[in-house]
Amino acid sequence: xxxxxxxxxxxxxxxxxxxxxxNYAWRDxxxxxxxxxxxxxxxxxxxxATALLNAAVLERCPGLAEACRDRGDEIAAHGGTNAxxxxxxxxxxxARMIHDVTERLASLGARPTxxxxxxxxxxxxxxxxxxxxxxxxxxxxxxxxxxTRLATRHGDILSVPYSQEINDLPAxxxxxxxxxxxxxxxGSAVAQLLSECDRRPLVLGIALxxxxxxxxIACRRSPAS
Length: 225
Description:
Family: Belongs to the polysaccharide deacetylase family.
GO molecular function, one term: hydrolase activity, acting on carbon-nitrogen (but not peptide) bonds
Number of strands: 6
Function: Is involved in generating a small heat-stable compound (Nod), an acylated oligomer of N-acetylglucosamine, that stimulates mitosis in various plant protoplasts.
CATH architecture of the largest domain: Alpha-Beta Barrel
Structural class: alpha/beta
Strand order of the largest sheet: 3-4-6-5
Pfam family, one: Polysacc_deac_1
Distance between the termini: 26 Å
Shape: globular
Largest sheet: 4 strands, mixed
Helix content: 40-55%
CATH class of the largest domain: Alpha Beta
Number of domains: 2
Domain NodB homology: 28-137
């Protein structure tokens, strides 16, 4: 979820206007169309997902948040919007934002226990603030193939890696990779970790964003994906 005409925003193409109608519309397409295609895909495959929700989704796309809840997805907090990086906030502002996001997402029926910072952005105090707010895990640190514990002033918080390689947005938009090789990357990663998982517990997160178009969905439906 991004703000129109201000703040940060993922770009399909370099911005040439202010407000940036083209890139905003591409991002909004994900909320209006792409997310529902992903939900349909997960339903067809019988999979539950972790839905990383900005709290603003509750006001702007409430039906989408409710659909994720109703199908039994894990609801993890993803800040207020993706238009601001929490690493740039003051200590008081960051604590207030975490509290506000937590309370708003709790209205779906359960308090979120996982957090991914917008833009993978943290301050030095973020793990302490999340543990204080009752969060059990965070996804910002893609530094291992297994969950690790981070020490905070309020006890340990679990770091669950959110992959930057097995992640469609940087792979296809930033690295200009086609959908089929991306699906191949998923298959290769699964094979590698399966060969190691009898020796230690491992996690493979597959990050899919709703700014999808038909050929990517078709690729996701293939056996390789």
